[in-house]
Amino acid sequence: MHPIVLTVSTGRCGTTFLEKSFRNSFANRDNWVTHEHLKQQITRVGKYHRCYDPTSRSDMVNAEIRSLLTHWKSVAKSGPVVDFGWTMRSLVPYFYEQLANQLRVLYVHRHPIEVAASFKLIGNYSIYNSEDWAIIPRHPNALYPQFAARWDSMTPFEKCLYYWLEVNAAAQELKQVYPELNVLEVKSSDLFRSEDVLQSIVEFTGFDCYNRPVDKSRERNRREIFLLERRPIGQEWIRYQEHPEIIEFAQRLGYDMSKEFVESLIPKYQLPPGVVPWLRNRSGYWALKESVGKTLRKVGLR
User: What's this model's pTM, rounded to 2 decimal places?
Assistant: First the structure.
């Protein structure tokens, strides 16, 4: 039997790069390489955050999840199986119950400021708040419920930082809850810097059975200009200093949380210079364009 590997991450951690690299290098009909194969609407990864209780898991596990597990068991007879997406991290307890040591977990994390800024641009905790993915401090399984007292005064950027904290604290907890679970922890930045780290992931996921190096994808996720113009990071970034829990946990993972370093990360998430980006941001141009597009699609004109 070959390994079956799930990934634990917040998202925005370079896992698309991993999926493309492994697909280019190894994918064939005898193995499995995907990214977010089951979407959050199916796994309800936010709702089932830290779902260790078997009774709760019975509500989580649906026909799509059972079907995928059965199929993966079959594929793993001929080759390794990996999904690099964040949307299936809630399935780790259930899959470990079913697969025991055949299951492995790749844990990828990134600097919290970069993750939170990236999610804020997308609209998390502003226009997107579904319990399918979102974790809030009033969640019954929240590790940091004390944030509830601050929640209503927190900006979307700060709420994205809280999400980072909950996900990564839960990832660290997995090692304590399941001490026999095989977990490989990797910093996102090392995916792009270190050939040794990539090779360690090849070996961990079982793709070293093909005896060839990984062919690194040259594609990268872009920060789309409309995101920077619509929801840029402003001065709210400095408010990370109001949350010592996030600073302490990030430092434990080896991240520099000094004001000087954090400030150096911010410019790439801010409004681009120039009159046109400023006008689009101030006028709500992109929101209006989106609204018009939806209206045209509704009436069949687009």
Answer: 0.96
